[in-house]
Every structure is written in structure tokens, then in C-alpha cells.
Design a protein that fits this description.
The chain is globular. By secondary structure, it is α/β, with parallel strands linked by helices. The protein contains 14 helices and ten strands. Strands 1-2-10-7-8-9 form a six-stranded mixed β-sheet, with helices on both faces. It has a four-stranded parallel β-sheet with strand order 5-4-3-6, with helices on both faces. Helix 5 (82-94) links the parallel strand 3 (75-78) and strand 4. The protein folds into two domains: 8-53 and 152-314, Rossmann fold, CATH 3.40.50.1100; 56-146, 3-Layer(aba) Sandwich (Rossmann fold). Helix content is 46%, strand content 15%. Residues 19-307 form the Tryptophan synthase beta chain-like PALP domain. It holds the Pfam family PALP. Keywords: Lyase, Pyridoxal phosphate. GO terms for molecular function: threonine deaminase activity.
């Protein structure tokens, strides 16, 4: 593991490393959403990725970057779902044990998927402190290597490959790319890919009002916690890390917040008009573009749809 901020070279190397294991996801367009937004939108469909989310990229890059010694006692992480699946999937590929700490209120669809990849799940209360404490206990007991869901440079480098593909696959120069932000792994990776592969492209983030820590951190210049946490976007509940925040602060143009109602409306458009299954967190960037027409009007905008792991028994519409 390099332990340094991703560079153009390390992102290219990560892409070559994970390519055999991931889907090169398609970029979709929608005339309806173009007209609604007044912009030319290009949707990078990471909901169609292995494990149903972009997290496969970061998990694979982190696990494939470990030495045989580091893999010997397995890997461990904490996650409400998508990173958990990514780690379980990646560990299975290299034949390593995988221990996952999941909040006890994680979506059943995500729990079942993690179990399906053969990982050992330990449940905990849904607080960052409880998650980390449980991970530390597993590390002490098993000697497993801890891979943080987002505050890890190998994970960030892997996530950067989604925007790299988007930039390479779209025949136009994008004026902007927007990604959702939770812990900031995808957003920081996206911002670095734009910097290296499309320097004229501005990067924005969409964030739920009910987990608005990144926008506070962005304004105050230090990592903040959200004043309250209550959102349908269960994949974006965490706050930024000391590795993701400086990249975001340096490379991201703005963070735009959206309400749960706006997230559900965007989700409905993606399901009904584009015929794709998108989870609430995955619809946040679309919601932010539709809400902020003045920012994006007349521009060519890449939108990263981060995931499609939705509990069909709990659809919000």
C-alpha cells in the first residue's frame, strides 16, 4: 500500500489492477432529464457495477494491493452495506477471510449479499464509535488487516477509476462532474480523476440535508459532524475523514444539499424514465443537478449514480 494521495500514475495502475474483476459500466443519457435540467447529462451507471455499487472498485484495489502476509489473517472493515459487499467480494476473489462489522439496522438486502460472499458478520450499534471499537476487537482477536471504507488512499484510488472511465467514454469535454458524498471516498477520487484527466472539469457533490456534514466541513475548513442525521440516503450517513477532506477542500468546487423529497423525486425519474434500479444515495447527485438548474444550465454534466442496492420491500414510492 502506498499510503499517499493518489496520483495520475497510481489511478492508472489501480484501473489496470481492478479491470479484470469489475464491469466497465455504461454511460446513459436521458432526453427527458436533459430537458428538465436544461443541461446535457451523462449518467455513469455504477448501480450496474459488481455488487451493485462503485465500492467494488475501492475494495478491490485495496485488497489486491495487500501482500500475502497482510492477507494471511484476513481483512476486516465496518460498513452499512456497499463497502461491506465490496470487501467480501474482493476477499473471496483472493481466497482471504473477511470480517464485516455492520450496524444492526443495515438493509436486509445488503446483509444477505455480504453473507452470500462468505464473510463473517458482527453486528453493532450504528455509531462510528461502536463500529470502530468492534473492528478493533476483531483485529486484536484475529490479526486481520483493517481497510477503512473511505479514509484509505488505496480505496480512494480505486473509486477514482469510475470518473476516469466516465471522462474517457464521453465524446465531449465535461464542464462538470457531480458525485454523492458520505465519507468522501468517491468524491475525493472523482475530484482527483478530473484534475488529472480533464482539468477543465469542475467537480461538485450532492449531499442529503439530513446528513449535512461535508458542506459544513467545506465551509468551516475543519471536519464537522452533521447537526442531525435523518435521511433516506442510508449510504451517506458518515462524516469525512482526514484523508478525504483535504482532497475535497482543494479540488471540489461546491457541495449542494438536497432534501429527502428531492432525492425520492430524482430516484423516481431514474426508475421510471431511465428504467434503472437506483438506491436513494445513488439518486442524490441527480437531485442536486435538478435543484440547482442555474449552476448547471447549458453545461455538459457527468453524474455518478453510485449504487442500486435498494430494499424492494421498502421502496419510498
Amino acid at each position: 500500500m502506498t499510503g499517499t494521495v493518489p496520483t495520475r500514475v497510481t489511478i492508472e495502475a489501480a484501473h489496470a489492477l481492478v479491470k479484470p474483476y469489475i464491469h466497465h459500466t455504461p454511460v446513459f443519457t436521458s432526453q427527458f432529464l436533459n430537458e428538465l435540467s436544461g443541461a446535457e447529462l451523462y449518467f455513469k451507471c455504477e448501480n450496474l457495477q459488481k455488487i451493485g455499487a462503485f465500492k467494488a472498485r475501492g475494495g478491490l484495489n485495496a485488497v489486491l494491493s495487500l501482500s500475502a502476509e497482510q492477507l494471511a489473517n484476513g481483512v476486516v472493515t465496518h460498513s452499512s452495506g456497499n463497502h461491506a459487499q465490496a470487501m467480501a467480494f474482493s476477499a473471496q476473489k483472493v481466497g482471504a477471510k473477511c470480517y464485516i462489522v455492520m450496524p444492526d439496522n443495515s438493509p436486509k438486502v445488503k446483509i444477505a449479499a455480504v453473507e452470500g460472499y462468505g464473510a463473517t458478520i458482527t453486528f453493532c450499534k450504528n455509531t462510528p464509535e461502536d463500529r470502530q471499537r468492534t473492528v478493533d476487537e476483531i483485529v486484536a482477536r484475529t490479526g486481520a488487516t483493517f481497510i477503512h471504507p473511505f479514509n484509505n488512499y488505496e480505496v480512494i484510488t480505486g473509486q477514482a477509476t469510475a470518473a476516469k472511465e466516465l471522462i474517457e467514454d464521453v465524446a465531449v469535454t465535461l464542464d462538470a462532474i457531480i458525485a454523492p458524498v458520505g465519507g468522501g471516498g468517491l468524491l475525493s477520487g472523482t475530484a482527483l480523476s478530473a484534475k488529472y484527466f480533464s482539468p477543465h472539469t469542475k467537480v461538485y457533490a450532492g449531499e442529503p440535508e439530513g446528513a449535512a456534514d461535508a458542506v459544513l466541513s467545506f465551509r468551516s475548513d475543519k471536519i464537522e459532524k452533521a447537526p442531525y442525521v435523518n435521511t433516506i440516503a442510508d449510504g451517506l450517513l458518515t462524516y469525512l475523514g482526514d484523508k478525504t477532506f483535504p482532497i475535497i477542500k482543494a479540488e471540489v468546487t461546491d457541495i449542494l444539499t438536497v432534501s429527502d423529497e428531492e432525492i425520492v423525486q430524482a430516484m423516481r425519474y431514474l426508475w421510471e424514465r431511465m428504467k434503472i434500479v437506483v438506491e436513494p444515495s445513488g439518486a442524490v447527485s441527480t437531485a442536486a443537478v435538478l435543484k440547482n438548474k442555474a449552476v448547471f444550465e447549458g453545461k455538459k454534466v457527468g453524474i455518478i449514480i453510485s449504487g442500486g442496492n435498494v430494499d424492494l420491500g421498502k421502496l419510498p414510492f
